[in-house]
Amino acid sequence: MVEFAEARDWGPYHTPKNLAVALSVEAAELVEIFQWLTPEQSARVMADDGKAHRVRDEVADVLAYLLQFCAVVGVDPLTALSEKIDRNEARFPRP
After folding, report:
1. The pTM is what?
2. In the chain, fewer beta carbons within 10 Å around the N or the C end?
3. What pLDDT does 89 receive?
């Protein structure tokens, strides 16, 4: 993602604020697919080729902006996830 953005000279636009906003917009577009669906309908959304395609596209957009954001602010997403899981294990121990 970093190389893709650099090749297009998008650096000036890829500030932490702009990337966080773009990530939020793309996440909202993913949510929009499920808006007004019943729980049962939402569980079957991937069975509809048109909706499944939209879901995959929005997931890709969310991931792309998240990875670009992490690159700009210097966060290793896998390390951040691992550390968060460890904290959650302590906060929410198994019964």
Report:
1. 0.89
2. C
3. 97
Dump pLDDT digits (tens) for 12-56.
Answer: 999 999 999 999 999 999 999 999 999 999 999 999 999 999 999
CA atoms within 13 A on the CB side of 38: 2
Radius of gyration of the chain (CA): 17
* 3-class secondary structure per residue, the chain: CHHHHHHCCCHHHCCHHHHHHHHHHHHHHHHHHHCCCCHHHHHCHHHCHHHHHHHHHHHHHHHHHHHHHHHHHCCCHHHHHHHHHHHHHHHCCCC
